[in-house]
Amino acid sequence: MKILVIEDEPALYESILDYFTGEGNICEHAVNFASASEKISLYNYDCILLDLGLPDGEGLELLTNLKNSKKKDGVLIISARHSLDDRLAGLDLGADDYLVKPFHLSELKARVSAIVRRKNFDGNNIITFNDINVDVVAMKTTVGKTEVGLTKKEFDLLVYFLSNRNKVVTKNAMAEHLWGDEMDLSDDFDFIYTHVKNLKKKLSEGGAKDYLRSVYGIGYKFSDQ
Amino acid sequence: MKILVIEDEPALYESILDYFTGEGNICEHAVNFASASEKISLYNYDCILLDLGLPDGEGLELLTNLKNSKKKDGVLIISARHSLDDRLAGLDLGADDYLVKPFHLSELKARVSAIVRRKNFDGNNIITFNDINVDVVAMKTTVGKTEVGLTKKEFDLLVYFLSNRNKVVTKNAMAEHLWGDEMDLSDDFDFIYTHVKNLKKKLSEGGAKDYLRSVYGIGYKFSDQ
DNA sequence: CTTCTATAACCAAAATTTTCATGGTGTAAA
DNA sequence: TTTACACCATGAAAATTTTGGTTATAGAAG
């Protein structure tokens, strides 16, 4: 994921950059209107984090320019101004979301992810892994040309595996992803085995190879070998 | 990976401990300044999770003491204080990151992993030693192009050897790192021999040279000669 | 009411970790 | 040099933990 951070306050942009870089994203950075404008026109970003209070220009103008071009980068406004007017002005001009300072980085991340998901699944909403195709919008899964009917949990599980292909996913992570905070992590979640088993069974009935391996003591890994 | 959780609120530290233990890590725990201070001085941790609001002392002092010693444990501050000043104070004293409560456990895990990666592997997921490659995220080990399947203890042992390459590691240090304080250090841990043997066997079956030498009366050394 | 889905409970199977017994090896002192 | 002894290596078996598969039940959806 590629992100542009437009922000002049060093303490803030450093922590944002560190954070998103640490998450494995590509981050760029602009401290003023001029360099931001140049970067926006030259490159494409999955999401632009835009601070409204820039030293040499009005941040909203960047947004106007962006929208006048054909670009479709996501825009998240971050600003200390918390009046409703500012908020509406930003959203009216086509920003995807608005976050008031100060905020938690995890909050910021959640918002950015939401924007990117919304944008990406709009056009290209199919995840592919060899002969497996998953349409996340139509919630349809095919192996080769045969469709396999998955339940919701099975589907979520598959999407999670596919977006973490070739990595070991722990059972904790699976539980947190599929069941969120409702699930007490000290509970046993043996029933994950049942969902995993059902998913494997349906995939193999559809004719897929056995991509999913268990990693003893840790979790699972979805990969080629 | 060995982690120390310094936190006095039972609900929170229990879920953190459950989570990280479930991920296959060694976790220890302190509820106050005194015991935290003792553990920090006696042992080494990959990462210390430090809550600033302790009942009997100022958490930041622990950080100061740690930095004054030669230790290089990673430190992640977790705190309810979300002012920028608090944040900067912690980072100025040498903390590696700062996370504001409340947070998601997966978020915490990501931060801890990032810290450990940065410290131990130059921010890289892959550790290399001649023909040996270890991907700590995919949990995959290869010698040349052949993959060798290691168990968790073997894997941890190898990672520990590789991050202490060309140094002699004592058996005590190995035991402490792989088993933490569940293991009474007065016990004999002869079974380390077994794990070492199994690791050596699998590596040599994969075609690796015999990099691991025992150092009589001390421990082992993983190196070229 | 019927059918499908999600969770629970249970036991069997598999993998890992630890224990144990035995013999070999390095070191230092006699 | 020899000897005693602690240390290390190894193989096999026991103990423990984790996973797989079956079946049962509750609850939602149709």
Automatic annotation (TrEMBL), chains A, B:
Pfam families: Response_reg, Trans_reg_C. GO terms for molecular function: phosphorelay response regulator activity; transcription cis-regulatory region binding. This is DNA-binding response regulator. SMART domains: REC, Trans_reg_C. SUPFAM superfamilies: C-terminal effector domain of the bipartite response regulators, CheY-like. GO terms for cellular component: cytosol; protein-DNA complex. Gene3D superfamilies: 3.40.50.2300, 6.10.250.690, Winged helix-like DNA-binding domain superfamily/Winged helix DNA-binding domain. The modification 4-aspartylphosphate is found at D51. Residues 124-224 form the OmpR/PhoB-type domain. It comes from the Bacteria. Keywords: DNA-binding, Phosphoprotein, Transcription, Transcription regulation, Two-component regulatory system. One of its GO terms (biological process) is regulation of DNA-templated transcription. Residues 124-224 bind DNA. Residues 2-116 form the Response regulatory domain.
